[in-house]
Amino acid sequence: MSEQHHDSSQDYSEREPFLLGSWLVRPSLLNLKDGDETVHLGRRNMDVLLYLAREPGKVVSRRELLNEVWRDVVVCEEALTRAISELRTALGDKPGSPKYIQTIRKGGYRLLQEPVTPAPETSRPTVSEEIRTDSEQSVREGATAPRPERAPHPEPAPRPTGQRTVPRRLIPWIPLLLLPVILVLLGHWQPVKELITLLSLPKGIPLTSRPGREIMPAISPTSDLVAYCWRAERHAKWQLWLRDPDEVQPRQLTGPEFNILHPTWSPDGSRLAYCRGTGLSGESAKREEEGICLLDLETGEVELVTSLVNYLVGLTWSPDGKELAMATISRIGLPQILLFNLERKVFREFTSPDYHGGGDRYPAYSPDGRIIAFSRRGSFGRDHIYLKSVLSGELRALEPSFASLVGLAWESENTILVTAVQGRTFHLSRIDIAEETLQPVLLDRRDILRPSFSVDDRTLVIESQVNNSDLYSVQLPEPGENLAQPLPLFSTTCDEVFPCVSALDGRLAFISDSSGSPEIYMSDADGDNRQRLTDFDGTQIIRPAWSPIAPVIAFSVSHADSLILCLLDVESREIRELATIGNSIYAPKWSADGEWIYANLYMDTFWEFGRISITTGEQETLLNGYVNILADHPTLGVLFFTPSGSTGLMAYHTETGAQPVPGCEEVYPPSGGCSLSGDHLLMLQYDGSNNLLISVNLVSAQQDTLGLFPDDVHRQIPVSPDGRLYFSRLVSWEGDLILYKDFY
Fold first, then answer.
1. Would you give the DSSP letter of residue 158?
2. Helix axis angle, 78-91 to 43-54, nearest 10°
3. Strand partners, 594
4. Cα–Cα distance, 739 to 390 (Å, whole number)
5. I need a labelling partner for 457 at 20 to 30 A (CA). Which of 425, 526, 536, 631 fits?
């Protein structure tokens, strides 16, 4: 990645125009021309088109296009999907019956048209040339001289079948469409592409604006009511409310005795099913009252139809009213989808989660009830949409994948709306089931979660949530002293997470979304001289870490279905790709000598604990299985870790292998971050009621509690050379519900 170069096909000044069907492709101008219609393309979109045009008819894989077109940056797979979608829109192509670009399932894309060199002809003057000619003639003849009448233009030749003209009804909108270009020319900070996208987005109507959070909206079959869950503060219980968009006040349906989550409507709109207190109330005397309940909205009667003790990750009612589909924790500890027959009060398994994956979530019936769509987390940490037939059990995986998916809803028989992370923010996108393409629909700096959609009258309700995490620092106490009060380092309205400290000079690196997408930033130890180091424009960046011997930061970025480990030279800003680690790399940490990076590696079907050479990228397996990597001690010459799922501190040496640390048999794996400070291993651990900062002396095996920490601390607590500990804390998490009428 250090070589910032392009393929020769991207030198637009040397590319000649060519005909593609009815379009004249002009690479040097980054546009397409068809008669009087001109469509502008972004640079990457033109790159994709030129690459496909090299060998028309040949199937080009998604991986090849990503590697060639985006070779100078690291992006997620959705960038290519978006580029293909925008190209099709520009060309007037239809995915179902393509004339230009065809999707080959599991193969890639191919260009259907043969590029043709246009015949030379005298071109008609452009608008700017006509204006310049008129101006010159006006100067020559004098301002008062009458301008000669122009001869009428000849009638244009008939346009070939398939070419398009600009409809007259769009002419009044031309000034609005030119607004983004004007803003960019005036130095406006937003790119043209983003402004055009935002101008075309539907306008939402605020449905709620109360303090606290409203979550899990469920729109009624008649679209006139929205059920949702609300709580005023973090430790309160969720309550069920009903909102009529035409009325001023919402209606409370349940009290604060239980947590109420996952409301879903019966097909006739007379009842609501919801999860009552499942695994959340913590009051054992009420366990027999927890489970799935049905609320009759006319009588107010509540029926407990089944008791559950496992946490739910989705609940939905079948269109025929006979079953409930729910995602609940299975016997192996992962969520699976069960179907509950409301007449016979019996369950049946609908999915069996992969032991090596993350389970199945967010079931949603298709409008005709024949298919259930759900999210399945793969073994390499990415989410995929699966479709499964209710009758035959036939299973199909859709091609788009996501770093994290938190909700889905059917928009039609052929499209699904999903809310998934792009960068560090959850956006709403549309999946075309036949073409397996992804199109962004709603973009916002706030998180868009859990869509609820009414197919009949196309009404959409979403959660719109915003996170604000600030960086804090605290001086570590001397022996016998208490932990001081942490002080905020940055107090912004943005999300600042994953702090890491240079052992050389104490400089701080972290991830912030203050530019609109997550990027790596750097500052002094006190937060001064803040600088932006990267420009990935939305790609997910994971866990930056300073080298112990050089001003170099290691970090991972999401690319297609893999994570790429990169090195950033802070002084030159040069980024070098180090390795693509199988399907996943997790929790990377530097070796004390700065020559290796330790990490958990997922290799197709199993976890390995290994290390990667920073000079050659060579990977070396050290142990089988997943471990909690803690720290590499510079003087003891061993790497400390705890085995996954068990207690006891272990030390790994390349010659002796893994050995238990005497006296540390009762050390628990950290529930939060960990770091090394001299001979002391600092770990955040949760004891059931408090988040504690624990110190373990690696020489004497003595354990001490240094103090209490907030519950919402992110999983990284680096320590500076002068003994200051840094951490990121979630300051606020608020949100409301937004309603979209006539959603396109």
1. P
2. 80
3. none
4. 31
5. 425
Region 479-483: mean pLDDT is: 78
- The amino acid occupying position 291 is G
Mean pLDDT, all residues of the chain? 79
- Check if the beta carbon of residue 46 is closer than 8 Å to that of residue 30: yes
**What is the structure's pLDDT at 165?**
40
Residue 546 DSSP class: E
> Averaged over 702-722, what is the pLDDT?
85
Query: Which pair of tokens denotes residue 243?
Result: 């909102």
Read off the pLDDT of each residue in 208-232 and give the average, rounded to a whole number.
Answer: 90
For residue 279, what pLDDT is reported?
45
Q: Which long-range contacts (CB under 8 A, 24 or more apart) does 372-377 make?
A: 372/325, 372/337, 373/408, 373/410, 373/416, 374/314, 374/327, 374/337, 374/408, 375/405, 375/408, 376/351
Amino acid identity, position 526: D
Amino acid at the residue 124: R
Report whether pLDDT(270) > 90. Answer: yes
What percentage of the chain's residues is helix, strand, coil (to nearest 5)? Answer: 10, 45, 45
Confidence label for 332 from pLDDT (cuts 50, 70 and 90) = low
Name the token pair of 283: 């009051």
Whether the pLDDT of residue 191 is over 50: the answer is no
Cβ neighbours, 10 Å, residue 314: 24
Work out the angle at residue 442's Cα, subtended by the Cα atoms of residues 439 and 233, and round it to the nearest 5 degrees: 135
